[in-house]
Design goal:
The protein has helices at 7-14, 18-26, 46-59, 63-70, 81-88, 91-111; strands at residues 5-6, 33-34, 40-42. By secondary structure, it is mostly helical. The protein has 2 domains: 5-93, Multidrug-efflux Transporter Regulator, Chain: A, Domain 2; 112-153, no CATH class. The protein has a 3-stranded antiparallel sheet. The protein is elongated. The chain starts with a strand and ends in a 42-residue tail after the last helix.
Amino acid sequence: MARLLTISETARRSGVAASALRYYEERGLIEAVREGSGHRRYPRPVLRRIAFVVFAQRVGLSLEEIAAELAKLPPHGVPTRRDWSRLSATWSSRIDARIAELERLKAGLTECIGCGCLSLDRCKLSNPDDRAGRLGAGPRYWLGDRPAQGSGL
């Protein structure tokens, strides 16, 4: 049987805090083996599974979505190249959407000269009489909604 890693070894090798490893285990994303002492021990392949979780989080997947993706794999398996390709195929559009959102936010920064406010005619934060509130919750203009025609903005 291959040597098992302690939680501190797994944390060091994966770059993920021990508390996060315990949380991932609680959520069913990874599994540990318990020794007679009750200490967690991890099989080496868990490092690849943890890397998958970390990457998927960076893409923007929730832990629930990651669990659903990992459920498509054998219970003790780690993603192979083919698995990775299949699981990540739909992530490209998600990354593109995040890039577009960041570009939109960046463009908004160059339009705004800060509150003083010398740019009310095009300010994405200006909201006289809470007109944006009729469009829904949150910063509606930053989310892409446009002020109603004739609102003066």
